[in-house]
Amino acid sequence: MNIKDPTLYLNREQSWLAFNERVLEEAQDKTNPLMERLKFLSITASNLDEFFMVRVASILQNENPAPDASGLTPEAQLEAISRKAHEMMTKQYNCFTRSLLPAMEKEGIFLKNYEGLSPAQKAYADTYFNDVLYQILTPMAIDQSRPFPTVNNRAVYIFIQMAADETMPVRTVEWIEEEGRWRIAEDSGQGLLYALVQVPTVVPRIVKLPSPEGQHHYILLEQIILAHIGRLFLGHTVTRTGLLRVTRNSDLTFDEEDTDDLLHEMARSVKDRRWGDPVRIEISKGIGKAAIRTLTKPLNLTPDKLYNISGPLDLTAWMSFANSKEFSHLRNMPKPQKPSPDFHNQPSMFDVVKKRDVLVHHPYMSFDSVVAFVKEAAGDPRVLAIKQTLYRVSGQSPIINALIQAAENGKQVSVLVELKARFDEENNINWAKLLEKSGVHVIYGLVGLKTHCKVCLVVRQEDDAIRRYMHFGTGNYNETTAKIYTDTGFFTCRETFGQDASNLFNVLTGYSKATQWQKLAVAPVNLRATFLHLIEEEIRFAKDGKPASITAKMNALSDIEMIQALYSASQAGVKIRLLVRGICCLRAGVKGISENITVSSIVDRYLEHNRIYVFGIGRTPKAYLASADWMPRNLDRRVEVLFPIEAPDLQEEIISELELSLSDNIKRRQQQPDGSYVKPPRRGKQAVQSQLELHRRVDKRYSDATAADKFSF
Fold this sequence. Notes:
The protein has 18 helices and 29 strands. The protein is an alpha/beta fold. Helix 10 runs parallel beside helix 11.
């Protein structure tokens, strides 16, 4: 079979939807604590929102009718997405209404309708409407003098249909498709009126009610509003109501080469995101066909973009509820992060890194070591300069504060803030402005490329020479996500790494041409070629009858050239084991093509995020960490860094982690030749949950370090 055969490739969008199904399985899994299940369900809803805002929107805008590697045209992809997304949303709401709500009631947690409230609860809801909601709500009429109102992205609205008061003659209004406007219908007299009311986002969506002792009663905000909707339309009779939610295109696109001020253009584009073209509308069931026509026509939404919902719209609202302190007993028992054992009881991180390279494993080890590295550099009088890339940072970032402090202390501080980090653009714009005001030299990235690599370079004057200390990471400089994402950081002061890091920042901040890298591989310069060379090297070993293997962990695998290289390696006899959390367009286990390839995916309490690539286990291995997945955007359209881990003990740490993940038989699923995923059989095998085992290993290592300052991973 030809390795270019479309049947050998899974469609990227279908593969992503399959990943979201795996997350949904965790919400359906009754062995998970109740609020963890609710969190997983909320995550699937948030994931699906972003999928429509970005991926579906990009396909709709795609003017190229050519099929993808799997043979699907854009039109066929949209049809398949619609079918699968409808199925998924049905499963989401079945999970919520038929499984989670009954389970919550068993725990004394009740979601009430207004009609089912006790007199005291109704009085509370009535007071809340009168004292709070009535002051906030704004009814928006739809008629010939008031065009269809702008519906905000992902906001929940109440649609109201009403009959006019008999003393107020009106004309029926109708939407004229060919004219793209409302007009008065030819028949005059009494007619129907329509209006929208947005459910406020400035107050909690889930309202706690007075409850019997030992119970927790709640009501959704829209239930309170609906019970009092007549107050907003005095003189009219409300005949039908329903809920709707619109998802809009939020993929920012503009010509970077034609803009003089990237910061200004990005700020403008972020504001425009709210008004992107609608790509999906969710409507509560029973709203009525006339209402659906009234809503979908002005928004230019075809029937395939309509999703009828049996349950409360916007399941993302339940994330904060699931994280409530009062339900901590219904969540996973917290696993405290441990400080890095390597830096335990050491007065200076620089002294440690000067002696040896160090790996830190998040979230099993605290992100504090990374923050401490920048803070120590900011306050150390010997430090001359700090250079750092920032892709996504938290709202109250200690890294940013340390960089500001460094500038105020007279250090030369240069920071590349990536303004194009999707959905973090506004946050990054604000940080960039604050850094500039503090005297930091801020760079906004390279035209046409996203800077996605995670690098911090500290230049320090020491007694014998100027020395460079570096941190390279697989994840962002974000102490919040470092608690829930698995990532690996690498500290070193090796001169070859320092030269490469300096060259990288010269490329990013100035006009320096890409040089010959000594240790790093950098996209889009030579990262793709480096990976292909490493795969080809394993093919040569296999053909020579020597041990040949590739073990890799990443977030996504969709690059066709990389997949074809892996197929060729499999045919040559290379043993390939892949851990791919999300999208995987490679089809494993196909006879004669990929029978030497396995693909696994882990969905557990932490988001698997680190990128690890090891070649030649069984020989002297080559181990690497990276900021890049095997996707076209990472290899061709972003600045990414691949860095080698050369110390044998650190290589063993990485390989041990990979082997443990591949032995997971609780949260790991393995891809089948048809692209589906199943959990491995456990009969007769000891249960292995890799994330919990990694916690145990780090706990032991830290205990050993604190007891005797000796440790092993």
